[in-house]
Amino acid sequence: MNSKFISLAQFAVKSGLCAGTVYLTYDKGVWGNVEQGNSALNQLRTTNLSDLIGEEYSAKIPDLELPLEVTSSLTSISGTMTDLRQNIWLYYNSSIKSGLNGLDNLPDTVSGLAGNAKKIVLNNLK
User: Which of 7, 28, 38, 89 is the most buried (most CB within 10 A)?
Assistant: First the structure.
């Protein structure tokens, strides 16, 4: 009985959060036309924490900054993604060629490895 009540309460909270999110985004114009969407985006960009929870509570929250390691990694990843976007077909063609060359050389590679295995077994039997 108790577990059913907890499950019902969890469902009610999740449903309420979802419905509230949909209502809030609709009310702010996210689901409207282009002008309403741009207005909602500009409103979101200019919103501060103090606008949401008040100046009294926002003063108590410490400033959170990302460590230098994280920001430098993000810069590095951004550069890599830019390179990937610019050269995607070069990388794609290179991977296809490498895969096909590997399949083409597979019989020679397997016979070479089998010969090496045979030599090792014969040397261990002596």
Answer: 28
